[in-house]
């Protein structure tokens, strides 16, 4: 006779706790201030606020977890606010830029040009010349860039520092966005590498190493470890064809943060162990190489909130709508329209009532005349009134700069580092 356990009620998955932010008097604390006070200080809504203390703590925790030999780069496309880049540049070992515009911000922020690298498909000739003039490392994504770099180098009498971005023959499994493996606009296919490396030698460019980036927003340590191992091994094979010893090896990143119900924070321990292994191998096999990982959202995403004010509270056929003064025009990702396949809710709360026990199911929508402008779809939230502050967590990355601010003609949002 088989014993069957009583059917257990399947609990709906919940968001990871947003415990990085404390509560005071029932309000969320951001940058040391109660949210209602911070909103007064900023003087208007909507705004993004990035917490300095959390940014520092994040880098410190990462440094403590990973082997000391691993260098940390910040991929600034995640959050290019100049004050954020300035702060983070002082905490990490280098900045990765993906346009001349980002290069300008990084240089203004005081980042050391020796530790800036410039990746991205479709670099224009003028951008390549700017990179040579600035003395930054160019991650070459196409053979077309080589003669342009050589010409700029000759004209300026400055060396062109290059690494090759490789389009690997594998991908980062289970990633939000895959950026390697198969046909891609990024990097140079592994098969074309020996020829390209020869050309770098012939043109007398300053070869420094390789850049591999297999994907983004990954919460599976085993997948990240596998991609890092494969990246290392691929670089080791390619090094045989290189015109100079490998001095720089960017193993990519892809560390994710929990956005949606059921997602957990990434466990760094297996990744640290795997990197330790690679550090030891590199000491023998690529003795001149410094190993780099490049992270965007993992460094800044959890430190930021998007804050909007509720301007209306409507009930439509029994469903509560909290209408705010900003939405997808400032925060496309939270609306679910930036690379999500199925829309899911970011963690959201009513920031000035976050500790309140009076709760209800409500939707938070922005002011745009489109049903896409949805920040929270039927979530359990503290009971809110007009004037309260709706807060979207996990908003430190791919927020303002990744959103169509002019769409529908509402005011732009502001950003503060607090
Ligand atoms: C976007 C990007 C990153 C940052 O990705 P995150 O998911 O924010 O960590 C890093 N490297 C490259 C090459 C990128 O294109």
TrEMBL record:
This is Pyridoxal-dependent decarboxylase, exosortase A system-associated. Its cofactor is pyridoxal 5'-phosphate. Residues 55-300 form the Orn/DAP/Arg decarboxylase 2 N-terminal domain. PANTHER family: DIAMINOPIMELATE DECARBOXYLASE, GROUP IV DECARBOXYLASE. Keywords: Pyridoxal phosphate. InterPro entries: Ala_racemase/Decarboxylase_C, DCO2ase_PEP1, De-COase2_C, De-COase2_CS, De-COase2_N, Orn/DAP/Arg_de-COase, PLP-binding_barrel. It comes from the Bacteria. It comes from Roseateles violae. Belongs to the Orn/Lys/Arg decarboxylase class-II family. Residues 47-396 form the Orn/DAP/Arg decarboxylase 2 C-terminal domain.
């Amino acid at each position: 006779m088989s014993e069957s356990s009583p059917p257990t009620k399947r609990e709906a998955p919940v968001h990871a706790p947003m415990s990085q932010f404390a509560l005071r008097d029932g309000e969320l604390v951001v940058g040391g201030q109660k949210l209602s006070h911070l909103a007064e200080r900023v003087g208007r809504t909507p705004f993004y606020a990035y917490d300095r203390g959390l940014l520092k703590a994040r880098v410190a925790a990462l440094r403590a977890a990973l082997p000391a030999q691993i260098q940390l780069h910040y991929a600034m496309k995640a959050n290019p606010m100049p004050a954020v880049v300035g702060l983070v540049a002082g905490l990490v070992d280098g900045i990765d830029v993906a346009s001349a515009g980002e290069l300008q911000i990084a240089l203004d922020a005081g980042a050391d040009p020796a530790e800036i690298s410039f990746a991205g498909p479709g670099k224009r000739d003028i951008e390549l010349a700017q990179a040579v003039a600035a003395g930054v490392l160019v991650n070459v994504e196409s053979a077309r860039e080589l003669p342009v770099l050589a010409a700029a180098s000759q004209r300026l009498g400055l060396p062109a520092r290059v690494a090759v971005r490789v389009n690997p023959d594998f991908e980062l499994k289970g990633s939000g966005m895959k950026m390697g493996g198969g046909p891609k606009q990024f990097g140079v296919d592994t098969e074309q590498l020996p020829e390209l490396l020869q050309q770098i030698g012939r043109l007398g460019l300053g070869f420094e190493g390789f850049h591999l980036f297999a994907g983004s927003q990954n919460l599976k340590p085993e997948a990240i470890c596998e991609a890092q191992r494969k990246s290392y091994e691929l670089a080791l094979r390619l090094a045989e064809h290189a015109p100079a010893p490998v001095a720089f090896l960017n193993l990519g990143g892809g560390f994710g943060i929990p956005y949606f119900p059921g997602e957990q924070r990434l466990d760094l321990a297996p990744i640290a162990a795997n990197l330790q292994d690679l550090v030891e191998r590199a000491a023998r096999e690529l003795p001149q190489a410094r190993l780099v990982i490049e992270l965007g959202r993992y460094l800044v995403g959890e430190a930021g909130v998007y804050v909007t004010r509720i301007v209306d509270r409507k009930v439509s056929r029994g469903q509560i709508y909290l209408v705010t003064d900003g939405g997808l025009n400032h925060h496309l990702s939270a609306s679910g329209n930036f690379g999500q396949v199925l829309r899911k809710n970011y963690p959201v709360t009513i920031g000035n009532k976050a500790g309140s026990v009076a709760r209800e199911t409500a939707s938070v929508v922005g002011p745009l005349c489109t049903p896409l402008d949805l920040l929270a779809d039927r979530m359990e939230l503290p009971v809110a009134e007009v004037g309260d502050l709706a807060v979207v967590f996990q908003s430190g990355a791919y927020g303002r700069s990744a959103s169509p601010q002019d769409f529908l003609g509402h005011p732009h949002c502001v950003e503060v580092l607090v």
